[in-house]
Design brief:
alpha/beta, 7-stranded mixed beta sheet, 16 helices, 34% helix, 21% strand, globular
């Protein structure tokens, strides 16, 4: 869709829904609504869809913007949200199964490999902590209980009383079981069963690797999903790269009558009284809709944290959003490096995903944890012949970068890149001498290209909170305005934001009267 060539008649059209941003949460919302017959417009500030789940191309390499450890592509149950989202608009991703979720390289030479086979993972962990065998089994079996509750019911909007009544009638025990765990964090449950501090440290890093929070701040619902789904649906990489997911959702959106416009930066959400009725682009163009959905972060939408131009003026920001700011803060962003390397420096039997932490005390520190993805071990088509991709990233705050002049910024980029490469060489010792291509991204890069406040990965609690109970849902206190993505229940992660997309579309569908009466099969 080319806005510059658009006719006045189209500009004056009243859409059923306008989605601001084409991250996975926004695209799932848009495609679910379009599949139900709604007239949907997605406005994306960048040139490609997907946000942090997009991809970029350089000299024959296809680089994933974010991580390549993907949940939600299984075939059975209700937790395979990416499979479901694509299916609902007539699309499907060919995937490559990964037999190992992650290989941990931890302090004091501790190494843990998380195999897809649950029994094998438990055996590996028990061999390191034989005195905690009962505790290990009890904790991870509790995770399975949470997962089985989630996997036995259609995951839609828990804001909709009609949906809650239907799903309770369909699966009453699962609903009651799930409600039981809503107030708890993973750390609460782990400490019921486990005493060894090193094992508790391991569960902390298990949570941190996808939530960027230790177990005491990670909701048990989220932990139950991740720690079990990796052994159920498994980790499945989309052939062609992670960016294919967004591309196929866009294709499905268009096939179902929806539209997407790129290079379309939304500056303001237009209000009429206390109701959202449209959006205004940086170019001055205005679009109007019955509902507005923001896939921007909660800070970019409602302000706070020093944001100068939020989508909603501070004077119009609801009290509930100001309270949310008091409970949550932006997580760090990342320093990312995308490398093209000679194939020979990566042993053929290597695992695709690795995490390196040299000191437990460094877990939440600036650039303390290093994550590594080598997606070409699963899909060699992503790189030129005889080459691999090594994508590594480490948490880094914008405050470490934003006051540097260009010269010192460039120096810090290279210095920190070299430090990260040295960490990677703890696992792949000949990497540095085999680099063919190199791209470096900083928190400033993430802020610029992804349009996220401080380039943040998402919200984290300022303090220990009761599980998922304080997380906001999709509705806001402004009539007609909804939020979707990692600032909404249930939080960060590709499958989690896909859930928020299903929930948001269901809530809006109920308002528009387009939801089917029956629950999904």
């Amino acid at each position: 869709m080319n806005l510059e060539k658009e006719t006045l008649a189209t500009k004056n059209t009243l859409w059923d829904a306008i989605v601001i941003g084409s991250g996975i949460g926004g695209l799932v919302t848009a495609t679910q609504l379009a599949a139900k017959g709604a007239k949907v417009l997605v406005l994306e500030r960048y040139t490609i869809p997907g946000g942090s789940s997009g991809a970029f191309h350089r000299e024959g390499y296809t680089f994933d913007v974010g991580a390549s450890m993907i949940f939600g592509f299984g075939e059975k149950g209700y937790t395979n949200l990416l499979t479901r989202a694509l299916y609902d608009v007539g699309e499907k991703c060919e995937t490559v199964p990964d037999p190992v979720q992650l290989a941990y390289h931890l302090p004091n030479g501790m190494k843990v490999v998380v195999n897809k086979k649950f029994d094998q993972f438990i055996a590996n962990l028990t061999s390191l902590f034989p005195h905690e065998e009962l505790g290990i089994k009890a904790f991870y079996e509790t995770c399975w209980k949470v997962f089985k509750c989630l996997d036995s019911m259609p995951l839609l909007s828990i804001e909709d009383p009609a949906y809650l009544a239907k799903v309770f009638f369909k699966a009453p025990l699962a609903c009651l079981g799930l409600a039981r765990w809503l107030p708890f964090n993973a750390g609460d449950i782990a400490r019921r069963y486990i005493k060894d501090q090193n094992l508790l440290n391991f569960i902390d890093i298990e949570c941190f690797c996808w939530s960027v929070m230790p177990a005491e701040k990670t909701p048990m619902i989220n932990a139950g999903m991740v720690f079990s789904d990796r052994h159920a649906g498994g980790i499945n990489y989309p052939k062609g790269g992670v960016g294919v997911i967004a591309e196929k959702l866009v294709k499905g959106l268009k096939a179902n009558g929806g539209e997407i416009a790129y290079k379309s930066r939304v500056r303001k959400i237009i209000l009429e009284g206390k109701k959202a009725i449209g959006v205004k682009l940086a170019t001055g163009t205005e679009f109007y809709a019955r509902t507005i959905i923001s896939n921007a972060t909660r800070w970019d939408t409602f302000g706070g944290e020093g944001i100068k131009e939020p989508l909603i003026e501070e004077s119009d920001t609801p009290t509930s959003e100001k309270k949310w700011r008091g409970r949550y803060q932006p997580s760090p962003s990342f320093l990312s490096i995308h490398l093209g390397v000679n194939q020979d420096c990566i042993p053929q039997e290597s695992h695709c995903h690795h995490l390196i932490l040299n000191q437990w005390e460094e877990m939440e520190a600036e650039q303390g944890v290093a994550f590594i993805s080598i997606p070409t071990l699963l899909d060699e088509s992503l790189a030129p012949k005889d080459c691999h991709i090594v994508h590594a990233f480490t948490p880094s705050s914008l405050s470490e970068w934003k006051k540097l002049d260009p010269s010192n910024y460039a120096k810090k980029k290279q210095l920190d890149c070299n430090r990260l490469i040295s960490k990677i060489e703890q696992v792949f010792p000949h990497l540095k001498d085999n680099i063919i291509h190199q791209e470096i991204g900083t928190p400033k890069s993430h802020r610029r290209f992804l349009g996220r406040h401080n380039g943040s990965y998402g919200p984290i609690p300022r303090m220990k909170l009761p599980g998922l109970l304080p997380m906001p849902f999709n509705s806001t206190a402004i009539e007609g305005l909804y939020c979707v993505g990692d600032s909404c229940f249930p939080g960060q992660g590709l499958n989690a934001v896909a859930f928020s997309g299903f929930a948001c579309a269901h809530k809006i569908g109920a308002k528009l009267g387009i939801n089917p009466w029956s629950l999904p099969n």
